[in-house]
Amino acid sequence: MTTRVLAAEETTNFLLPNATFFVEFVLFLIVLFVLYRFVVPPLSRALDERQEMVRKQIADREKAARTLQQAKDRYESELAEARAQAASIRDQARADAAGSERQLVELDAELSDATARRDESIAELDRQSALARAERARAVALVPADLLALYDKIRAQQGGVGAAVLRQRRCEGCRLELNAADLRELAGEPTDAVLRCPECNRLLVRTAESGL
To answer: Domain locations in the chain?
Structure first.
């Protein structure tokens, strides 16, 4: 009995692997192979895809951040340029307004000066006209009535000019030169005779330049 127990203890030595160990080891290897063959690759692809997606999102965010910064810089640059242009336009408008105001002041001064000169000229013309009327009135008083009536008649017929100077054989009224026969006839008239232009019928005033 003792020998049989010892024999049994010798056959079940725990230091030596038995068939169960080998079976479990083989199953473990099978499970490990299945995991490596069918589970690990999909997980690796999923992890790679996840990492790629994360990298792409990071790159997109960085690109969006750069684009946003570029847009911000461009906006600030355009805003600064627009402000500079607005300031330039405002300064130019102020300068133009100041120049226009100076021009208006100068124009007002020139207008006032021109108005004063015009008023002086009108006053001088009125004075000269009054003197001329007075002188004419004195001259008319010395002219015989029949000659004055003839003068007024010719003036009415000849557009307001009844007498003209005879200068260098030319009537200054009609601007026509008298022929030799007319000049001889006029030269034969007495000095106090009333001469008339044979062309326009105006009264002729003899002078030293008449050519008679």
So the answer is: 18-105, 145-212
